[in-house]
Design a protein that fits this description.
3 domains, globular, alpha+beta, about 350 residues, about 25% strand, Uridine Diphospho-n-acetylenolpyruvylglucosamine Reductase, domain 3, four-stranded mixed β-sheet, Uridine Diphospho-n-acetylenolpyruvylglucosamine Reductase, domain 1
């Protein structure tokens, strides 16, 4: 198969953060056979392969990529409703939010809280995308992926994906081994929406939506995300980001208790105030990264020149215009160090770093 290989293609325009140098070689794959051909092309030339999707959860280095960038653009959706379950299978290159919108329009529950998230379908199992009390792992039934170690197309069931909070085997244990090509979801036809997140529930209550539909929840989620500049909007100066830059840290309950006790002893907390905390697996506690950043003395809009925190949400690091990846990484290090020094908690970055590291 003849591939259209281009050289020295700028990567910054392919990233929502707007940073990154050029790809030495670049190919846009619209079919699975093109993906296979691109993998073989890079392998025969002993070139490192970088798979790029929507670019909404990646920080690309200023030096770019010295090998082949494989840009996934495969399209196609199949849906079948039967017995109260809607089974949806989507190609990795399908834009995520339009898929959610279609599911909501059909009254299928399971993805409504994941509305407004940029990116492509293929990234959802890798990151175990989640928001407003819902995770995509709740609905994924299987992932079809190309195993680069064997060359086979594998079908991995949900339990084989090792999903965890913003994590999976594709991101951690088997990072770089698989190229996700297709994802299957099981949604609830006519099901009730998920209302587990306090902020979302309060918003719907204020809007007098006593029994909200999945459409009501989608509308509310997008409204809340827009208020935080967490939707793609070319007119929003805060939107040039990767969304949440850090995950909410999960710590032993004793650590959370100790942090609260210390802040209370220092007079930082009001008498009736408690740090936000949520139950996590194995008796641990999930803390709010945004709250920690603010308590470390960093307010919305804080920054240096071309890089800073969003003026609407402290969890987003924003390219204010013309920033280099090195500036973004240096600023992220500062934020993490300030939280660590002040509160004793080390934040973990959420986006994927390409030829970069915070350490």
């Amino acid at each position: 198969m003849a591939l259209e290989i281009r050289e020295q293609v700028p990567l910054a325009p392919l990233s929502t953060l707007g940073v990154g140098g050029p790809a030495r070689y670049y190919v846009r794959a619209q079919h699975v056979d093109e993906v296979r051909a691109a993998v073989d092309w890079a392998r025969t030339r002993d070139l490192p392969l970088l798979v790029l999707g929507g670019g909404s959860n990646v920080v690309l280095s200023d030096g770019g990529h010295p090998g082949l960038v494989l840009h996934l653009a495969t399209r196609g959706v199949e849906a079948l409703e039967s017995g109260g379950t809607a089974r949806v299978t989507a190609e990795a290159g399908e834009p995520w939010d339009p898929l959610v919108a279609e599911a909501v329009a059909r009254g299928w529950a399971g993805l409504e809280c994941l509305s407004g998230i940029p990116g492509l379908v293929g990234a959802t199992p890798i990151q175990n995308v989640g928001a407003y009390g819902q995770e995509v792992a709740e609905t994924i039934t299987e992932v079809h992926a190309l195993d680069l170690t064997t060359g086979r197309m594998d079908r991995l069931e949900n339990a084989e994906c090792a999903f965890a909070y913003r994590d999976s085997r594709f991101k951690s244990a088997d990072k770089g081994r698989f190229i996700v090509l297709r994802v299957a979801y099981a949604l609830r036809a006519g099901g009730a929406p998920a209302l587990r997140y306090a902020e979302l529930a309060r918003h719907l209550e204020a809007a007098a939506r006593a029994s909200p539909s999945v459409a009501d929840v989608r509308e509310a989620v997008i409204t809340l995300r827009r208020r935080k500049s967490m939707v793609l909007d070319p007119d929003d100066p805060n939107a040039r980001s990767v969304g949440s830059f850090f995950t909410n840290p999960i710590v032993p309950a004793a650590v959370a208790d100790g942090l609260e006790a210390r802040l209370r002893a220092e007079g930082v907390l009001r008498e009736d105030e408690r740090p936000p905390r949520f139950p996590a697996r194995d008796g641990q506690v999930k803390l709010s990264a945004a709250w920690l950043i603010e308590r470390a003395g960093l307010s919305r809009g804080y920054g240096h020149g071309r890089v800073g925190l969003s003026s609407r949400h402290t969890l987003a690091i924003v390219n204010r215009g013309g920033a280099a990846a090195a500036e973004v990484v240096a600023f992220a290090r500062e934020v993490r160090q300030r939280v660590r020094d002040r509160l004793g908690v080390t934040l973990t970055p959420e986006p994927v770093f390409v030829h970069l590291s915070l350490d």
